[in-house]
Amino acid sequence: MVDPIGLALAIAGAVIAAITAGIGSAVGIGTAAQVANGVLAEDPKKFGNVFILVALPGTQGFYGFLGAFLAIMQLGLLGQVNPITFGQGLQMFAACLPVGFAGLASGIWQGRACASGIELVARRAGEGTKAVIFAAMVETYAVLGLLVTIFALMGIKLG
């Protein structure tokens, strides 16, 4: 039997995962893009060097979407809805939070790291790899948030 409150909690968790990680990506990309546009106004040839640094914070949004998609698939919302209790819905809600909040924070901070990396590339075009490495270190925490969400969802047995 499907408890409507449990189902609503599970869906709310999926929504929070997607929205918060998406916000982190949007803010991060926006921060990096602002700096990149300033650099490109001076030297349009550096587009290739700064593009990866602008795009990098966008991965958090994908992680949040993946976490939400896995939760929706587990619920069976694309077909017949699996039976879910209030407790299971609460578990699914909690399981979706790590990817959402890790994506929110790391997307914003990765955008800042990328913006600084873009400033480095503006002065020393050959140093782009170092800037990407520093920005990718922030990515680690978004990946860990996704892994926690995946493992937590795997531990919830519905039906």
UniProtKB/TrEMBL annotation:
The keyword Transmembrane helix applies. One of its GO terms (molecular function) is proton transmembrane transporter activity. GO terms for cellular component: proton-transporting two-sector ATPase complex, proton-transporting domain. InterPro entries: ATPase_proteolipid_c-like_dom, F/V-ATP_Csub_sf. It comes from the Bacteria. Gene3D superfamilies: lithium bound rotor ring of v- atpase. CDD domains: ATP-synt_Vo_Ao_c_NTPK_rpt1, ATP-synt_Vo_Ao_c_NTPK_rpt2. Keywords: Membrane, Transmembrane, Transmembrane helix. Its main location: membrane. Pfam families: ATP-synt_C. SUPFAM superfamilies: F1F0 ATP synthase subunit C. The keyword ATP-binding does not apply. The chain crosses the membrane at residues 51-78, 90-111, 131-156. Residues 13-70, 93-151 form the V-ATPase proteolipid subunit C-like domain. Signal peptide: none annotated. It is a multi-pass membrane protein. It is found in: Membrane. This is V-type ATP synthase subunit K.
